[in-house]
Amino acid sequence: MSKEKILTVQDISCVGQCSLTVALPVISACGIETCVLPTAVLSTHTAFKPGWTFRDLTCDIQPISEHWSKENITFKAIYTGYLGSREQVDLILGLIDKHLEKGGAAIVDPAMADGGMLYKGFPSDFPKDMARLCAVADVILPNITEACLMTDTEYKSEYGEKYIVALLRKLALLGCKKVVLTGVSFDPKKLGVAVYDCSDDTVEYYFNDKLPRMSHGTGDVYASAFVGAYMNGKSVYDSAALAADFTVRTIEATMDDDSHWYGVKFEKELPYLIKRLSE
Ligand code: PXL
C-alpha cells in the first residue's frame, strides 16, 4: 500500500478518545491524508454513564457519496469502525464499491463488542450485519468477542490455540482475506494478536507482556496504528506487531492517571509511532 488518501468511517464521540478523535490524529501522524465520514455524533462514548447524546448520521451517507461521485473522489483504503445503524452496512458496501480504488484496501474493525458483550445500543442481531461488511474486507480486526458474535461461537475468556484457530477459520468463511484477531492470550503474562491468512490457512502470533490495566479505546488506537503502518507499505504482520507495540505504550502512558479511565493518552506516543515507521 502506498501513501495516498484514505477514508475512515466511524463515529465522533466528542469526548472519550475513541473512533475519529483517535483515527484522525494517529493516521495523519503516519503521513497519510485521512478523510472522514462520521457515522454518528455522540456527546461521549457509550461506556460513560447513561445520558450520552446520539445523533445518527445514516441519512447523510448517500448524499455525501453522490457528491463524491460527481467530484470523482476515490480512496486508496477505506477503514470502517463503529457504525451508527445496521442500515449503514449496505451504504458502506456501496461506498466501497464506488469510492475504493482498484487494488485499494477495505479494512474493517467490527467495533461493536468487548468482554463477551455487545456495546450498549446495538440490537442483538447486529453482528450478522457487521459480518456482511467483513465479507468484503481485505483485512478485518475483530477482538475475540466480536469474532465469536459474528461466527456464532461460544465466548470463552480461557482457551487454547485450538479455540483460536477454529475461530480464525470460521472468520475466513465470512469471506474476508486476512484477519488480525486482537486480545489473544495463551499465557497469563502475555497478550497479543493472531494474524491469519485466509487463503493459505496460516497463523502467526505476536505477543507483548500483559499490563495490569485494561483501557477503553485501545481497539481504536490499535486499528488506527495498523492502518497507518499498512498504508506506509508494511506487511499485515509487521503492521499488526507495530500497532501492538504502540498500543502497549499508550496504555503505559496512561497507567498513572486513574481519572483518565475513558481512553488512553496516545498523543504522548505519536513520536514513537512515527519513529518506528521510518525503521
Ligand atoms: O472504542 C469503541 C467505541 C467507539 N464508539 C463508541 C463507543 C465505543 C465503545 O464503547 O461507545 C460510540
- What is the CATH fold-level name? UDP-N-acetylmuramoyl-L-alanine:D-glutamate ligase
Radius of gyration, taken over Cα atoms and rounded to an integer in Å: 17 Å
What's the shape? globular
Order of helices and strands: EHEEHEHEEEHEHHEEEHHH
Biggest β-sheet: count, sense, barrel? 9 strands, mixed
Look at the structure and give the CATH class. Alpha Beta
Oligomer: single chain
DSSP helix fraction = 25-40%
- Name the poorly predicted regions: none
What's this model, at a glance?
The protein has 279 residues and is of the alpha/beta class. It is built from 9 helices and 11 strands. The chain has one domain (6-277): Ribokinase (UDP-N-acetylmuramoyl-L-alanine:D-glutamate ligase), CATH 3.40.1190.
Kindly describe this structure.
It is a single chain. By secondary structure, the chain is an alpha/beta fold. It has a single domain (6-277), classed as Ribokinase (UDP-N-acetylmuramoyl-L-alanine:D-glutamate ligase), CATH 3.40.1190. It has 9 helices and 11 strands. The chain has helices at 20-29, 58-70, 87-99, 126-134, 144-151, 161-172, 218-231, 236-252, 270-277, and strands at 6-15, 34-44, 54-56, 75-80, 100-108, 113-114, 117-118, 139-140, 178-184, 190-197, 202-209. The strands form 2 sheets. The chain has a 9-stranded mixed beta sheet with strand order 3-2-1-4-5-8-9-10-11, sandwiched between helices. A two-stranded antiparallel sheet has the order 6-7. β6 (113-114) and β7 (117-118) form a beta hairpin. α7 (218-231) crosses α8. It starts with 5 loop residues before the first strand and ends with a helix. The model has no long low-confidence stretch (mean pLDDT 96). Bound molecules: 3-hydroxy-5-(hydroxymethyl)-2-methylisonicotinaldehyde. 3-hydroxy-5-(hydroxymethyl)-2-methylisonicotinaldehyde is lined by residues 11, 13, 18-19, 42, 45-47, 82, 111, 119, 217, 219-220.
